[in-house]
Amino acid sequence: MELGYYYYSHGKMAQAEEIFKKLGQRSIVEFEVIVRLIQLYLDKKKYDEGIVVLNGMLKAVPDSPEINHVAGIAFYGKKDNPSALKHFMKVTPESRFYEDAVIHASYILSENKQNEEAIKILRLAIDNEPQNAEFKYYLGTFYEDSEQFDKAAEFIQAAIELDADNPRYYFRLGVVYDKWNRKEGSMTAMRKVIELDPKHANALNYLGYTYADLGTNLDEAEQLIKEALKYKPDDGYITDSLGWVYYKKGEYEKALQYLQKAVEIVPDDPIILEHLGDAYLKLNNKSGALKYYKKSLQYKEKDKEKLEQKIREISTNGS
Question: Could you give phi then psi for residue 61, rounded to 5 degrees?
């Protein structure tokens, strides 16, 4: 490989092409060729060099699913998504890389606002491999992105049926239920995540924050979020959750301390900014509240009415 690249970089194209073609043919029966290619170029993020070698190998075996997959990864590493997608789409169900190629291809399409095409690819993949839990899980996430929460829950549940001890699946199901405004279902899923993985900081935080938002089980919520902070001590969202628990408990000075810290860590999140504004308002600091409500409004993309009403009320009554 390196000799071939040496010839290529010194303009000896015929010699380089001969080596690359032989490597391509060898890769069909010797998987070690693919392994070495990954180690030499992809693991070291030498994507441009790797692509030279891969393109040369593909001249001998243009339909090789393995080489096309590695080429897809190399182009994806270079952020050349159109080229990456072209190669990923050539990876066939018989390949050991099929699952990874399908997931990469669907993500590229989704990032390109082609969610329906991503869904089609995953549905076809499920037809090819109906027992593949990952395909069903990812299909669920794309339905979630499309706000088709019933279908999202259906496919993530189907993934759980195939892999019942995967905390990642339960966590995503909990998020879907939350977005679907099915809080009980969300909390049940998060409890299952914590049962499977007691150190799952995001699930601990999610359950604790949900309790806080509902104004229930506030002592348990505090314990859950403090546990989450053990594993992610500098996480702005978890810090915000703890501040929000204290806010709900009426401990506004304590809430302010954590919410200020959360805003320092995540300065552009509209919910955290609004929480800080709420704490200032409870402490009768109307100018502070107005400042952070206005900042929150800058970043809020939807459901602005309640926030705008808070700003109007402060502005009308004077700061």
Answer: -135, 75
Q: Are 207 and 189 in contact (CB under 8 A)?
A: no
| Cβ atoms < 10 Å from Cβ of 18 | 15
Q: What is the pTM of this model?
A: 0.89
**Residue numbers of the domain that contains 72:** 1-112
pLDDT in tens, 229-277: 999 999 999 999 999 999 999 999 999 999 999 999 999 999 999 999 9
The segments of the chain whose pLDDT lies below 70 read 318-319
Q: Determine, yes or no, domain membership for 299.
A: no
C-alpha span between 260 and 242 (Å, rounded): 12
Same-domain status, 88 and 151: no
Co-location of 55 and 105 in the same domain = yes
301: Cα separation from own chain's centroid: 20
Q: Which of the listed residues 197, 216, 240 is the one where a domain comes to its end?
A: 197
The CATH number assigned to the domain holding 180 equals 1.25.40.10
| C-alpha count within 13 angstroms, C-beta hemisphere, residue 234 | 2
Same domain, residue pair 107 and 121? no
Half-sphere exposure of 151 (CA within 13 A, CB side): 13
Helices (H), the chain: 2-9, 13-29, 32-37, 47-60, 65-77, 81-88, 98-111, 115-128, 133-145, 149-162, 167-179, 183-196, 201-214, 218-231, 236-248, 252-265, 270-282, 286-299, 305-317
**In-domain check, residue 13:** yes
Within 10 angstroms of residue 162's Cβ, the number of other Cβ atoms is 16
Question: Quick one: 99 and 165 in the same domain?
Answer: no
Q: What is the pLDDT of residue 8?
A: 97
**Residue 318: per-residue pLDDT:** 59
- Pair (17, 100) in one structural domain: yes
Element (H, E) at 318: none
- Residue given tokens 């049940």 in the structure block: 188
